[in-house]
Amino acid sequence: MRNVIYNLLLWLLFPLLIFHFVRGRFSYKKYTRPLSERFGIFRLPHRQINRFTILIHAVSVGETVAAQPFVDAIKKRYPEAEIIFSNVTETGHHRAQDTIPADFHIFFPLDYRSSVIRFLDKVNPQYVFILETEIWPNFLSECQKRSIPVNFVNGRISDKSFERYSSFKWFLKPLLKHPQFYMQTKQDRDRIMKLGSSSAEFSGNLKYDQLLFNLESPTRIIMQSLFQDIDPPIVVYGSTHQVETSRIIEMIRELHNEGRRIRHIIAPRHLNFLSDYAQQAKLLGLKVSLRSKFSGEDFDIMFLDTYGELANLYEGATICVVGGSFENIGGHSILEPALFYKPILYGPFVQNFREITQHFETQGASSKVHNIEELKQKLEVFLDNESLRLKIGKEAGEVVRTFTGATSTIIERVAPKIDSYKLSQKSSIT
Known about the structure:
Helices cover 50% and strands 14% of the residues. By secondary structure, it is an alpha/beta fold.
């Protein structure tokens, strides 16, 4: 009955889905690949016959980035395997093509049963890994019918997701019974078990490994050269949202009027309000620069209007402020600035990263403030106390490094299962 209801809803949404893709393609130039790929209609040319095929799926850019060390480890452990990497978003797909060493990069099917069947018929995976906790009922059901092992890696369930999923526990429980879950935290593990999983483990966060994996990226070298032209102190505000960005600009004006000579670099989460931010800063008498046009000129505020540079931008900071935490957004990751031994500040709304931030706070490796006014006070304390900054930054760097190893943990646990599965498949063929 649950499948009937779910599939009926999918087909009722079909006209809206088509409208979304058509509008995105022709009005916003958002979708460049044929829509047919989303329905499992595509070709995988030049495939070797009888290769052991592993499908690894990551919905978008963030999951793709986290997958890099995992894919690398899988390829090293199973060099003979065919790796097929799938995404949902085009940005994730393009990022995967640039960074993920897979044999094929494809789009994951829309969760219509016919699309899933065509997709699995073409890909024919013997093993499936899904980054985080992206639950597609028809895909999971079809994998179960075909006895394809499905593993969720780097799984997480936020407060909001858990509340939402709990309302549909009756629907989810049969779907969660068969996959193996490797969850980021013990809380995530407990939550997926409460929702119906019969096999879930705490394995850690792949993003810690990814940070170290990308430590020598070309982007890092570019950012290092950028900071040669900027005098400290430098405060970097990462992934700030609309309201908090505006309030941060007002706070910067106050610091400026007090005579503090600080370079502020703001990386807005969304760039569609960038012109508004720049105009506000100029009206407040602040010198404004854009990252894309920076050529060494003096500035009070620089706005990061490029993609893929924030993580390495933190390296040049004197102090790092993580956004999405002064509005009720849920916060963003503090791992990137911690990697570079930086003192980290954030607001009260960090529920999406509660366990991580609590651990950092317990170790004296980060500081939570309650509002923008308190942020200003804490910035002044840090700016006037170099030894305190260095102490907190050192603790942050050490904490993030104690958390590495999720990739090897997952590989160690899944490898015997894959080896056993390969052996059973080989035996059944012979």
